[in-house]
Amino acid sequence: MALRIGRGLFRLWLLLSVLWIGGVTVETWRIFPADIEVSPTRPAECTGKTNDECADILKRLGKNPFDAFDPNPPPPGFVVDPKPTFDPSEYAAFKACIDAGKSADQCAAQLKVPPFDPSKPYQIVRDDERRTAVRFAAMLALAPSILILALGSALGWAFSGFRSDDGAPRAH
Prior knowledge:
Number of domains: 2
Radius of gyration: 32 Å
Helix content: 40-55%
Strand order of the largest sheet: 1-2
Order of helices and strands: HEHHHEH
Largest sheet: 2 strands, antiparallel
Oligomer: single chain
Structural class: mainly alpha
């Protein structure tokens, strides 16, 4: 029974490649960036009050009335767009639109203000970071395996040139 080194090395490469790709997949999944959900909270002065009552209380206290709807600060290390400044004219225009009988969504569209529902959490979406992580993991998983296969094939081809046509090594 002849020893088939080429077949054995190919199977070894296949086994090690599967293990390598599996390891890279597990490690990438472990550190994969996830969306962060941030739940809104209300100041202590607003406990048990409606949104309008809370805004009025905060206004009287000299605070931003929209602080009632500010979410929790994000975890350390994450940067969120800076808090917009309060513009009383925009607030007055929005309130006038609501008082005219339009819905909040209609007023937001008219004033080009994105609608915001303070009762729902918002997400810090990290699509770009995820895309980058997947690209890096794919390169890290596939490149070494492909390079080793190409190197092994090239060496096998080169060493096959030392054999005679009948399969025995050449003597000269």
